[in-house]
Amino acid sequence: MKKLKNEKELVKKAIALGVAYGEKRGVVEFEPTDSATAKCEYIYRLLVHDKLIQALPEDQVSQKSIQHKLAIWASRQEG
After folding, report:
1. What is this structure's pTM?
2. What is the per-residue pLDDT across 15-56, written as a single tens digit (0 to 9) for each?
3. N or C terminus: which one in the chain shows less Cβ crowding within 10 Å?
């Protein structure tokens, strides 16, 4: 897994986009106290469920791999 050039910024963008996406769909309401880790995992699972990203093999799911997957997804979004 090759780290993206601006992965940290892309993860932040992915969280913002994912929160907006989940709340727009009406499936989640994030609290300000929710950790970035929890948000990342929920957004990842939601995007996999909606078939917007391909699932990682369950034995390869880690916070690092989830963040990488979300960063790739965010880099492909407009804006």
Report:
1. 0.91
2. 999 999 999 999 999 999 999 999 999 999 999 999 999 999
3. C
Q: Which one-letter amino acid corresponds to residue 48?
A: V
* Site of tokens 């093999």: 57
C-beta of residue 39 within 8 angstroms of C-beta of residue 45 = no
Residues across the chain: 79
- Domain assignments of the chain as residue spans, ordered by start: 37-79
